Amino acid sequence: MAIPAAIFIKRFNYKKGILMGLGLYAIGCLMFIPSSNMILFEPFLFSYFILTCGLSFLETSANPYILSMGDEVTATRRLNFAQAFNPLGSLTGMFIAKEFILTRLNPTCEEKRWELSQNNPDLLVHIQQNDLNVIIGPYLILGIVVLLVLVVFVFAKLPSSKSKDENDINLGETFRGLISNGQYLQGVVAQAFYVGAQIMCWTFIIHYGANELGMTKVEAQSYNIIAMIIFVSSRFLCTYLLKYVNPGNLLLILSIGGGLLTLGTIFIKGLLGLYSLVAVSACMSLMFPTIYGLALKGLGDGAKVGSAGLIMAIGGGSLLPPMQGAIMDMASISLGSFELSSTRASFFLPFVCFLVIGYYGWNTARKNN
Q1: Quick check: is 160 in a domain?
Q2: How many domains in the chain?
Q3: CB-based contacts of 19: which residues, under 8 Å, 6+ apart?
Q4: H helix runs in 75-170, sequence order
């Protein structure tokens, strides 16, 4: 939905793009109520589709809008500061998942549920409905909150972003300009690898704790929350450092740090390996908004369409994690006297991602210098 969102924003303006995003987001949340009553997977997928269409509109609108609000020299720092508040929402979501969802779900394991589907399907439906009722509450509240935010934005007076060619939607010319821009294209690739690394490192903290240390999912989720707290703190610190350090150089430094910590996750057993994985979040905090800002630098009004490519790059998060999961399902790897579990070996994928991001940081800093 990033390209349709970009066309919508180009045709109208950033504020209407934000309103559309909030509206779709709220509708998607509220659709979880009828979806849960159906006890079917497809309605949930459709609800998620509507919800994520809203998120796509919001990301495609808000990020370039923030970049346009002031001097281009400080645009990347401005976007980092704005996005420093995003992890607070993620942290809240993780806390809700742990305290209000995971702990309230029926503990019956998948194998037992399969047996019930054969021997006592009515009991299985009862268990499933109770689990779905647990999920309804958070999404209902979220939908109402988002609707309230939408009302606030309807009446809020936001800075104008209209340009003289606002309604001139020459997509062919705009796309040709973007494709010929090496810094932009490399930014899209780097963003895809970053989102993949972020989702792998955060999602598989739970699997790392469970597979390597025998933790329950609830216990392992606590380390996920710690990782997010580190992420939030580091985002504010890195935003401050951008006042003194070139964004490309800082991106390179943090990529090196993320790569080294990922190697620690791979080769160090036990809690130290888990601590290394959690610490990766400190290095990832700067990356998304910085890559975003560097890729759109100097594009002017073309940033409205260019932002679509960077939002589509989030698709890296749907390609790389399944690959890591497939590696986790393999047997352990024997390196002479050293045995590497498939769980730890799978983190070579995030390591490769940090190499790609580091190259983009180095290349961008070199060109700017």
Answers
A1: no
A2: 1
A3: 150, 153, 154
A4: 75-83, 86-96, 110-119, 121-155
